[in-house]
Amino acid sequence: MSTTPPPLRLTCDDAEATRGVGALVGRFAEPGATVLLQGDLGAGKTVFAQGVGRGLEAPTVVNSPTFVLVNEHLGGRLPMRHADLYRLDDLDQITELGLDQAAEGGILLVEWPERGQGALPDDCLHVHFSPLADDVSEDQLDASPRELVLTSNGRNAETLLSQLAQSLSPVSA
Ligand SMILES: Nc1ncnc2c1ncn2[C@@H]1O[C@H](COP(=O)(O)OP(=O)(O)OP(=O)(O)O)[C@@H](O)[C@H]1O
Ligand SMILES: [Mg+2]
To answer: Strand ranges (DSSP E) for the chain?
Structure first.
């Protein structure tokens, strides 16, 4: 019997730290993994997805799929599909994207998943992003701390979350 791992709370001081957490997801994810990225505009969801691409050693550039809805990145350890539902508010349109199947054999990342409830796989890792400072000056745009809270729903996501927690915990002497 598996036990649900507790939420993993991480502080990422800059964009590179957020990419580093994403890269671990890219390294550990098993085929079929779904990762839901939740947070406001500019919270760091696409930056995290760039890290996942790095962890998978995907050769293509990961950028915002806002206008194409789903980007596919092939050539890494697993195929990666990266969706952004921000511009969709019609659940039928979202259902047509076939996201419930899109994780098969690879890894599916979804920005703004709250718009696609009911059209996404049940077993998923949630990553919630929130800023730790209200005001960010121009020269801090790339380095404003974010809190990431990772939770799991389902067995595959639980396994992935446990691996992440283990790899991020300090090595005991
Ligand atoms: N700690 C941090 N983690 C992630 N991004 C950061 C951090 N500090 C600053 N940033 C900056 O914040 C911006 C995050 O942009 P990103 O495109 O990832 O947001 P998003 O959540 O995908 O937004 P959208 O909902 O518009 O798609 C980037 O410009 C990045 O450099
Ligand atoms: Mg984005």
So the answer is: 8-12, 33-38, 70-73, 80-84, 107-111, 124-131, 146-153
Instruction: Retrieve residue 143's tokens.
Output: 């380095």
Say what the pTM is. Answer: 0.94
Supply 169's token pair. Answer: 């915990």
Handedness of CA 141, 142, 147, 150 (dihedral sign): positive
Per-residue pLDDT of 77-108, as tens digits, reads 999 999 999 988 788 888 888 888 889 999 99
Q: Ligand 1 atom closest to Cα of 143?
A: 8
Amino acid identity for residue 66 in this structure:
T
- Domain segments of the chain: what residues? 10-110+119-137
Mean pLDDT of 26-37: 97
Q: Which atom of ligand 1 is nearest to the CA of 86?
A: 25
Q: What is the 66 CA–ligand 2 centroid distance (Å)?
A: 7
Q: Which CATH superfamily groups domain 10-110+119-137?
A: P-loop containing nucleotide triphosphate hydrolases (3.40.50.300)
